[in-house]
Structures are given as structure tokens and as C-alpha cells.
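Board notes (copied after class):
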Amino acid sequence: MSKSNTKVRKLGAIRQLLKTPVKDEIPKLSSFHAASSSGDGKGGMVGITGSALAVPPQKEKNAAREKETKPSSVSIKSDSGKSDSASSTKSQELSDKKEIQDLKARERDLLKQISSLQKLVDDLQEQIRNKEVEVVSLQDQILRQEESHKAALLEERTSHDATRSERDHLLKELEKLKAEVKAIREENVKKMEELKKELEEKHSLEIAEKDKEIKIRDEKLNRLKMQMADALKGNSWERQQQLEELTKELGRLQEEADGLRMKLKSFKTLKNNTAGGCGNCQESLGKVEKFQLAVKERDATIKDLKALVTKSEKQLTQQDELLKSWADSKGHKIPGYPGK
């Protein structure tokens, strides 16, 4: 909205003019209502109404002037017929002229005041018209803003309703998902308990089986030791035969030990896979580790026995060679020893 460029006329100069005393006091005139030819207030004012001052229109001023001059002329005519009032008539004429001049001066002052006041009234009316235009424009702007705000409010309410509906839908979906997650968690816990129980039983059976196999191998090793001891006590050929059998037995034991190693390796892989998920399998895993340690000890024993068998075989071979050389030199034949 563009503001009016009309400047408000300051009333200080006019008020000062109204306060300036004149030679004679302005006669008090009767107040009257201003007649307007058109309702717009432009140039239609024939007079100014006020509580302190009322200025008559031009016609009334002329009539008043004639009334003021006519009594003087009548008085002059009446006085001219009298011979004894010639001097007084002249004095009266001078007085009337002076009064007329004063009245004309007052009239000019009043006309100036009227012109100033009329200009002030025109300025004020122009300001009023500008203010009315501004008020109408502001009212239109207020109405447009009101309509815009109503539309924005309606749109915001619609958006809020849609958001609220979407929120309620999402809350229902969330509750449904929570129920599904809870059911899945309970099912997984149940399955984990079953798997844990199954693994514990399987580990127990495998450990018992491995313990049994280790016990059997210990018995076989003890028999091998006894057979080797008995073989060293017999003749060289029988000992050689027994050593060959022992070597075969050791080879078979070695193959079984390799098989056990493979099983232990699979147990170790199973241990690594279940270490993070099954926290109650430590006892079973400890048994597996003990079993692994026992197998390593058995492997060391087998290795020692193989070294011993190799050493004994070498010694027996040397003894057989010496015995054969001695028998050949003496012409004896060793029974049970195949000749070349």
C-alpha cells in the first residue's frame, strides 16, 4: 500500500494570524450552515461554520455593506436639510468613511483568513480522501490476507489430519512388527536351546568314543611293547619277523592316528564355529582339548616306538650279519636263518 504524498499543513501560522489583534474588534455574525452543491466537499462550500467565527457568503456580505452605507446616506440627507448641522454632517461623513475603510480592511483580513482556512480545509479534505483510499486499500489487503490465512489454515489442518492418520497407521505397523520380532526371538531362543542340548549330547558321545579309542590304542601300544620285549629275547630271525609285524602294526596305528587327527581337526573347526554362539559348551570343548593333548602324547609315543624299532632292527641286522660271518667262518649253519 503506497502512502499518501500529501503533506499535512501546519496550523501554526494560521493560528498566529487568528491571534493577531486588529484595530477594531470583529463584529459578531450569526452562524449559518454551509450549503453544498455536490457531496464531495470540493468548491461547494459557500461559508465556514465555526463556534468562534462565522463568515457569511459574498451576497450576505454585500447586503451588510449596503445596510451599513445606507443609514449614513440617509442621515446625511436628513442632516443636509438642516442648516445648523452642516459641520456635524461633515464630521459624520468623515467618521463614516473611516468606519467604511476599517470595515474594508477587516473584510480583507477576513477574506485572507477565509482563503487560508479554505486552503486548510481543502488540504484536510484531500488528506481525508487519501486516508479513505488508504483505508479502503488496507481493508482490501486485510480481506485478502484473511482469505489467504484461512486457506493456509485449512491446508495446514488438512496436512495435520493426514500426518496424524499416517502416524496412527505407522504406530499400528510398529506394534505389529514388535509382536513379530518378539515371536521370532522366542522361537530362536527355543531353537538355540534345542541345538545346544543336541550339541552337548553329540559332544559327550564323541568324547566317550574317543576316550574308548584312546584306551584301545593304549592297550595296543602296551601289547606292542611286550611283543617287542619278547622279540628281543628270541633268536634273531624270529625277532626280525616280529619286528616286521611290529612295523606293520605301527604303520596301521599311524594311519589310525592320522584319522584321529582329522577328526580332531573337524572338532576344532566345530569349536571355532560354535565358540561365539554356545557359551555352555566349555566343558565339552575342554574334554576335546584334553583328548587332543592325549592324541599328541600317543603320537609322541608312537614316534619313540618307531625310533626304537628302527634302532632295534638295525642292531638285529648287525647282530645277524656278525652271527652269519662267525657261523660261516666256523662252518656252522644257523637254524631258522635263510641262507643265500
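Comment from the instructor: Confidence is low (pLDDT under 50) at residues 1-55, 70-77, 335-340. The first helix runs from residue 12 to 19.
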